[in-house]
Amino acid sequence: MEHLNRLHIQLYKLNQKGYNITMKKIFRSGKIIIFILYIVVIFYLILKNKQITSSYNLPSYIIPVIFFTSILFICYKYLVSILKDGELEQEIISIVNHSFRTPLTSMNWYIKELEKNITQNEKMLYLQNLNNGTNKLLDIIDILVGIKDVENTTGYFFEAISMRELVEKSIKKYRDKINNKNIIFQISTFKDIPFLTVDLKKVSFVIDTLVENAISYTKNDGKILIDCINNSNKLTLFISDTGIGLKLIDKIMMFHKFYRNNNAKLMNTDGMGLKLYLSKQIIKRHKGKIYAKSNGPNKGTTFFVEFPFRKNN
Q1: Integer Cα distance of 94 and 269 in angstroms
Q2: CB 155 within 8 A of CB 149
Q3: Structure confidence by residue, pLDDT tens digits, 13-65
Q4: 238-280 pLDDT, tens digit each
Q5: Residue 67: which domain range?
Q6: What gap in Å lies between CA 128 and CA 123, rounded to an integer?
Q7: N or C: which end of the chain has fewer CB within 10 A?
Q8: Are 271 and 265 in contact, with CB atoms under 8 Å apart?
Q9: How is residue 244 annotated by DSSP?
Q10: CB 168 within 8 A of CB 142
């Protein structure tokens, strides 16, 4: 029932997007109308070229040059947008296809196995795996729907929270993965760290993303350090790992939609390249900053999240 409720909520949100799509179509039509009006005005100026240039003492070639230059520029921008849309569409299709196909294939296999004459323990194991697969699909839907949700400022609900508690809850979610990789966690006591007024669900998503990435991209027997710094006007959370590190291009592109470097794709094939993008949008809505530092590939990464706050919060 819980899964059905989550699915119904997400389907409702997707239906609500229909209004936004309609508005985008209207906006696109408006741009086309403006472009047509622009062409009409330019043609009128060309027809009146001699009169206008003589009246304002301009060279006779100035209006034709402006016209052809602007046409070339518009054509260039149009071609670039087509190429970008084509590349983005292929990337989205590839990511979504892989993200949905993998859990669905596994779930289909478990369903077929449940039809066989198997032991009760095996049935319970397969049912648990089916539940995990369902949760994974719902998480993917949450992420895809979240692209629009994080940009909607009216969808933020602020409350006072403890950063230490958020970090502990996040680590608890990934405890099995931490133990399997034998990763050493060092967590600060967060002494003298005040409560923050933030959107609990969205900031939890950010912390979960950073903790999960640190675990996923840190090799066995690695180390992860989490600490908080309380400055006069902001709180800075940082998560440091001994993982795969970052190249210069990664630092520039990592918060863009669907970006994943090659090492990340090899170590975690299920990633979609959306969580860091969403995290940055969430932190921006909190008027904060999120960024990363690294000394290079295989030299670890430290993510910083800055939250502005008032002392009376």
Answers
A1: 12
A2: yes
A3: 545 444 444 555 566 667 678 777 777 777 777 777 777 777 777 777 677 77
A4: 999 999 999 988 888 899 887 888 877 777 766 778 889 889 9
A5: 2-149
A6: 9
A7: N
A8: yes
A9: S
A10: no
